[in-house]
Specification:
Number of helices: 3
Distance between the termini: 21 Å
Number of domains: 1
Strand order of the largest sheet: 1-2
Shape: elongated
Structural class: mainly alpha
Transmembrane segments: 21-44, 56-73
Keywords: Membrane, Transmembrane, Transmembrane helix
Radius of gyration: 18 Å
Strand content: 5-15%
Number of strands: 2
Largest sheet: 2 strands, antiparallel
Order of helices and strands: EEHHH
């Protein structure tokens, strides 16, 4: 299965492995920005397990959201290609 990252150019395919890599990078960026925006040293020291849980949850949700978006883009392109050929 190929993911066409650019819906206007079918010459830019992306595999699911590539989508996972992009999702990992994007989720890491989101996690870092979230950390810089909301985490304080006092919160981390006061309750490390809760902070760790929230950090992992934020990363997992960001990764899943990015991956599902990329997979959905592929499905949208397949449907549009099907409409054009019929």
């Amino acid at each position: 299965m190929k993911l066409n990252i650019n819906p206007f150019s079918h010459s830019n395919p992306m595999t699911l492995k590539d989508a996972a890599v992009v999702s990992t990078i994007a989720a890491g960026t989101i996690w870092i920005l979230n950390f810089l925006a909301s985490a304080t040293y006092a919160q981390i020291v006061a309750d490390p397990p809760t902070w760790l849980f929230e950090a992992v949850k934020t990363y997992a949700v960001a990764w899943a959201g990015n991956f599902i978006t990329l997979a959905g883009l592929e499905e949208l392109i397949k449907r549009r290609e099907g409409d054009v050929h019929e």
